[in-house]
Amino acid sequence: MLETPLLLFILSRMTSIWELANPQLRDIAVYEPGKPIEETARELGIEPTEIVKLASNENPVGPSPKAVEAMRAALDHAHLYPDGSGFHLCKAIAAKLALSPENVILGNGSNEVLEFLGHAFLHGERQDEVIASQYAFIVYKLIATSFGARMIEVASPNYQQDLEAMLEAITPNTRMIFIPNPNNPTGTLRSQSDIDRFMSRVPEKVIIIFDEAYFEFLDGPPDTLRFVREGRNLIVLRTFSKVHGLAGLRIGYALARSDLVDVLHRTRQPFNVNSIAHAGALAALDDDAHLRETKRVIDEGRAYLQEKFAQMKICFVPGVANFLMVNVGDGCAAFEKLLRLKIIVRPLKGYGLPEWVRVSVGTMEQNRKLIAALMEVLAAG
């Protein structure tokens, strides 16, 4: 054991790691994902199969069976590097959406594409600004801050994204505007007419990012791809994590005009998407039966939950995707109480919504368990 004077001397000479790190990283709160099933099971001393996880907007039906089969076959070639360009998957996505493969870029989850955007278009020394709605997906703020940009959060009346206020917030320093549609965690959706008015007025120099992770759950979804075809400074993000049930693979993609995609490719690491994910996503893309069944389960479950919340006189935001935002009075307290009843939901204190939780739509059995547990929690006070 070092003597105290010597120890103090050594400590006084040590450099804090924060003196070496990028200063803007101090302002970043580490993203906290939904609580894992395995961790909860260990804490409660029960089997993981007893846990109902409704915290991360995962597909309760499971992965596409066609994707599972394709991934098993792909394992035989796991000793080989993947196709770095994702040729077959990009071609298939483009064909499905009436675009060119040059309009598609793959990411290790669509979140990785957000990093491409930061590398490509944000410069801290230039005092860049990024605009998003209050209560928008928290990763946008993490990306902006990590690249030294200033995050402008526009007020969200009635938990809706205010596109008019976003236009008013634009300055000469504005580089990007994020519009998740539907928005996570509020679940609200902007209409085609709202988007058209917004796009008719936004300056060409500003890059618009429509995050459409929940696109496939919508009935009559807005068409943002027409702006890609028109050559606008616009990027559409989509993912295989939700309706296709491949969240564990981390694979998503972006759609944009070809020269914008070319810029993003210059920020992409080689082999950023693994070969198993390639195979699974390619097969899932054509599994229409799985998509229809998933949407049926979600539509039925969402309607059931909204009906029960209304009967229980619980305030909630009507949703269109595979989750709902529910006011339970104290989100963190409700989260802990539900956890002891083997139900995992997502408290929203980190979004500035301490009274709320986000609930993913599950199977009908899971939804009924949630309602029973929530009734018990609220009755106990």
Please characterize this protein's 3D structure:
There is one protein chain. This protein has 381 residues and is an alpha/beta fold. It has helices spanning 4-13, 37-44, 65-74, 87-97, 110-121, 139-146, 163-169, 192-201, 225-229, 258-265, 275-285, 288-311, 331-340, 364-380, and strands at 52-53, 104-107, 129-133, 150-154, 174-180, 207-211, 234-239, 252-255, 316-317, 323-327, 343-344, 346-347, 356-360. The chain contains 14 helices and 13 strands. A hairpin with an 8-residue loop joins strand 12 and strand 13. The longest helix has 24 residues, at 288-311.
What is the mean pLDDT?
Answer: 92
Proportion of residues in β-strands: 5-15%
Tally of alpha and pi helices:
14
Total beta-strand segments: 13
Using only C-alpha atoms, the radius of gyration works out to 22 Å
* Unreliable spans: none
What structural category do the secondary elements indicate? Answer: alpha/beta
What is the succession of H and E elements?
HHEHHEHEHEHEHEHEEHHHEEHEEEH
Biggest sheet features: 7 strands, mixed
Query: Order of strands across the biggest sheet?
Result: 2-8-7-6-5-3-4
Secondary-structure map:
Layout: H1 4-13, H2 37-44, E1 52-53, H3 65-74, H4 87-97, E2 104-107, H5 110-121, E3 129-133, H6 139-146, E4 150-154, H7 163-169, E5 174-180, H8 192-201, E6 207-211, H9 225-229, E7 234-239, E8 252-255, H10 258-265, H11 275-285, H12 288-311, E9 316-317, E10 323-327, H13 331-340, E11 343-344, E12 346-347, E13 356-360, H14 364-380
Parallel strand pairs: 1-11, 3-4, 3-5, 5-6, 6-7
Antiparallel strand pairs: 2-8, 7-8, 9-10, 10-13, 12-13
Helix pairs in contact: 3-11, 4-11, 5-6, 12-14
